[in-house]
Amino acid sequence: xxxxxxxxxxxxxxxxxxxxxxxxxxxxxxxxxxxxxxxxxxxxxxxxxxxxxxxxxxxxxxxxxxxxxxxxxxxxxxxxxxxxxxxxxxxxxxxxxxxxxxxxxxxxxxxxxxxxxxxxxxxxxxxxxxxxxxxxxxxxxxxxxxxxxxxxxxxxxxxxxxxxxxxxxxxxxxxxxxxxxxxxxxxxxxxxxxxxxxxxxxxxxxxxxxxxxxxxxxxxxxxxxxxxxxxxxxxxxxxxxxxxxxxxxxxxxxxxxxxxxxxxxxxxxxxxxxxxxxxxxxxxxxxxxxxxxxxxxxxxxxxxxxxxxxxxxxxxxxxx
Amino acid sequence: xxxxxxxxxxxxxxxxxxxxxxxxxxxxxxxxxxxxxxxxxxxxxxxxxxxxxxxxxxxxxxxxxxxxxxxxxxxxxxxxxxxxxxxxxxxxxxxxxxxxxxxxxxxxxxxxxxxxxxxxxxxxxxxxxxxxxxxxxxxxxxxxxxxxxxxxxxxxxxxxxxxxxxxxxxxxxxxxxxxxxxxxxxxxxxxxxxxxxxxxxxxxxxxxxxxxxxxxxxxxxxxxxxxxxxxxxxxxxxxxxxxxxxxxxxxxxxxxxxxxxxxxxxxxxxxxxxxxxxxxxxxxxxxxxxxxxxxxxxxxxxxxxxxxxxxxxxxxxxxxxxxxxxxxxxxxxx
Lengths: 320, 334
Description:
The complex is a heterodimer of chains A (320) and B (334). With 320 residues, chain A is an alpha/beta fold. Helices cover 36% and strands 18% of the residues of chain A. The longest helix of chain A has 16 residues, at 2-17. Chain B has a single domain (2-333), classed as ABC transporter involved in vitamin B12 uptake, BtuC (Orthogonal Bundle), CATH 1.10.3470. Chain B is 77% helix and 0% strand.
């Protein structure tokens, strides 16, 4: 019966529902020997720069690669897709601990001193383990602050300052200088010229019967606003949200951002949009006005700014 | 029976009114007269006053969805009533013989493993496979009795449920679990005209003949022996009706996932209205099921507009308190 399958789904749902948002806590306070910070409500005390790091989800792996810290990663788990070419050489030698979220024993067996996760839910009992428990074993944990879900830690609305704050925080944990990376991110964002044609957009992340779309306060909204596009799901106070096809057809967006994931490719989304009698008459579908973004770049992190710049180039090429 | 006749007429009118109204309600604001002018234009009369896109909302999204809801609701409530009679078990529901877990396994395999079969077909085949295993198991245990059938169904459900959970746990990546979640909770958001064709055909070909078996089922009410004494071929009838309701349920599950509550509790609600006689119970359960699911799905697609809820959540959230209210009223009457 369906209810027998539900526990597994709920666990997996838990994994994902806790994705994507940002923290409003202050910058880490340097102590004599390291840093002490509040991460999604969990106190984290770093006495020495981590040497043996496990990264879970692509955002955390890519953050360290961008900071030139790829050699500290002893294993990755639950990666969303390949890293961008610029880091491919660095990433090639990093062992994959698990295709999915690694379990507690697999994590401890690798003897990490730091686990950096993209989602809070990666630290569940079925996942890498409880954060407090890991701390007692001497393993520090850290979650992308943009993905904090607790009230008071969840960011009201993601902006590039929040992403840069995370870069700064991670840099201070590893006792490296994040300024250069932050400045390059700022330069990328500054170089994006918002589209002035007054266009609306749908951020189509996944789903067939019920489309799952970028909503009003997360990375998709940040990217769309940077591009000068109005999100048709922008009124929903959430990072991502289930949406209805009727609402999509009613809004008739000018462009559709297609998230390309291995399990739900941009190609399959186009097939669906073109074969569904209700959506094939949308202006964006009739004129193939699509923008493409890899799944891993759609979550808040160091790829957000370059992804926005890339989408801006794609958008410029579209004619209306 | 006379009282049941009045109920039947009233519910029939209510169903037509429900469908008429439900298609005019949705996240997109389209006026009542425009909606119906558009529908009538598709039936060959006049031209639609709506743009191509808004016409698509009415004719390609809302209309098939509302009709599918009506068919699925009717089919599930009817199957539930028949299952409860055949197994003499008030807790029986259409999914009792492993149908929904089999269908879910079929659907999960398609969605997560990327097996290239159409999803409704995979779900239907999964349901039939589960049913076949259940009946084989039940007959391997000896003569097919209600209890053995129910227990065999339980075993098959558990196994298929475990395999489904395993597949989900093992293969889910990124946010691909979302689709399977709405399938497991039961959802009509993907219902288009092919779904109407599947569910409607099942109602006409299987549902209507099953509705006419009330007298037969009444003879089962006092046990197999008394049914045999009335001249009923007990085992043959049970096989035929189990098979028919399973096919009916399988067709419904294949278009909507496993929507809970409708098949389990609506037949009880109808019994509170017209008593236990199956000649009235079967058609009235079908009508009530259709009306109930049309409105439950209307709520599912509009209450958090523009978000959508899986309808299975709504059926349980509304249905359970309504049922408790009916029960309380009956005990107050008694």
